[in-house]
Amino acid sequence: xxxxxxxxxxxxxxxxxxxxxxxxxxxxxxxxxxxxxxxxxxxxxxxxxxxxxxxxxxxxxxxxxxxxxxxxxxxxxxxxxxxxxxxxxxxxxxxxxxxxxxxxxxxxxxxxxxxxxxxxxxxxxxxxxxxxxxxxxxxxxxxxxxxxxxxxxxxxxxxxxxxxxxxxxxxxxxxxxxxxxxxxxxxxxxxxxxxxxxxxxxxxxxxxxxxxxxxxxxxxxxxxxxxxxxxxxxxxxxxxxxxxxxxxxxxxxxxxxxxxxxxxxxxxxxxxxxxxxxxxxxxxxxxxxxxxxxxxxxxxxxxxxxxxxxxxxx
Amino acid sequence: xxxxxxxxxxxxxxxxxxxxxxxxxxxxxxxxxxxxxxxxxxxxxxxxxxxxxxxxxxxxxxxxxxxxxxxxxxxxxxxxxxxxxxxxxxxxxxxxxxxxxxxxxxxxxxxxxxxxxxxxxxxxxxxxxxxxxxxxxxxxxxxxxxxxxxxxxxxxxxxxxxxxxxxxxxxxxxxxxxxxxxxxxxxxxxxxxxxxxxxxxxxxxxxxxxxxxxxxxxxxxxxxxxxxxxxxxxxxxxxxxxxx
Lengths: 314, 244
Known about the structure:
The complex is a heterodimer.
Chain A: E1 4-15, E2 18-29, E3 33-37, H1 44-52, E4 59-64, E5 67-68, E6 78-81, H2 93-103, H3 108-121, H4 137-149, E7 155-159, H5 167-179, E8 185-189, H6 193-199, E9 202-207, E10 210-216, H7 217-225, E11 229-235, H8 241-248, E12 251-260, E13 263-270, H9 277-286, E14 291-296, H10 301-309
Parallel strand pairs in A: 3-8, 3-9, 6-7, 7-8
Antiparallel strand pairs in A: 1-2, 1-4, 4-5, 9-10, 11-13, 11-14, 12-13
Helix pairs in contact in A: 2-3, 2-4, 3-4
Chain B: H1 2-16, H2 19-45, H3 52-75, H4 80-84, H5 87-93, H6 98-120, H7 122-130, H8 135-161, H9 166-189, H10 193-201, H11 204-212, H12 218-240
Helix pairs in contact in B: 1-6, 2-3, 2-6, 3-6, 3-8, 3-9, 6-8, 6-12, 8-9, 8-11, 8-12, 9-10, 11-12
């Protein structure tokens, strides 16, 4: 954990009859934005709650800056924005931020300036005198984010921060989160994979309480390339190349169909190994395949995610 | 300490910005005033107008029953609302300890009841200026009432920490408090002296009755302190259960 700010080692959590997390381990780099992906019920919120100290693990350890977090006080440098934002709806925004700053131990002398700074940061100065209950969902999320920042935490945990927001608010929230990078270490869980891809340096993919992947977004793309999908459109004249081609390159056929009378479509996956696109191309031409189109399917983080979790309800 | 002060300030704002407190206060004053007036009339009819004890004892006896309702209403939102709106999570990850959170809620709820008790002092004051009355028994009765209220409030806070629904919290609090009060009557049904004594000792009605008579006994004070500690501890554990 050379540049690690936080590390989870073998975190497990069981509720009666249910194992929510099973030996979850990953580390988060200082000042980075770490994406936390998983389908519904994967254990994302439970993990975030354990990191925040809201929920105790059944086993495993958490390290902050290399120190074992064995007491609640170790969780105090954490800002948390849960999906169900912890807001007192009958309070004014400014009063709420004062309360949060106060109960998180911010010094009274510094509190006002810190609140002003945070309100400017998340752009809620103009609504500071309004009741939280009267604000829109987007502004409530902003107030929640401001509250999680008001005590200047080292680590910021954001659980689905863009959930339920309109596209404009999503973009604003994304820009806001990116602007906080470096100043805080941010762990963000989201279903919006494109968002994660745009914002995060590293990701952890979790499903059924188990970590499927943890590393850089680029690393995930590399993993993807190892099981890349190819599409081939070919003429129906000569088809003797097909069986040998699949055998030669150990391909897994994903989809096969006739496009029209003289044309067919074949989609296949190449398992782990070197890039053999050139060799495949040569094989097809050498064996008389009438190639109309041959291309590698462009994939994104979403495909990696769906591949890993098996396309379950995300 | 500043964190605790911030929480207390929030609790007070929260409590006194709710119309519930003012409705309860109005009902309380109305009922207690009527009761006091009836007691005065009854004392006059029986020719005991100068015997202020009769009036005071009657009022205090009913006051404790009235406060059973009041305490259930005052404490029902304490934790259930925080749980329902997930704001308890905010308090739990803050610098505050669970003990501080429970104590702040307790102080806030007690402040309302102190306000009501403060208003009720008008009746002993009226009697003080209109007849001979000993201040010490009245003070003992107030001390007993305060301790009794702390019992009701601590049960109310525990009930509120067990559910997200404030109505259920109020009903649970009322039922448990009433059950404890009824232990005093139940004890009278037992033929076994020891069993009757033990059951009777567990009821706050037995202890507050001694205070109303003007007797301050260490056993009564120990009962209230023990109960307060027990229910406070149970509330703390119930709140901490979120982390389990």
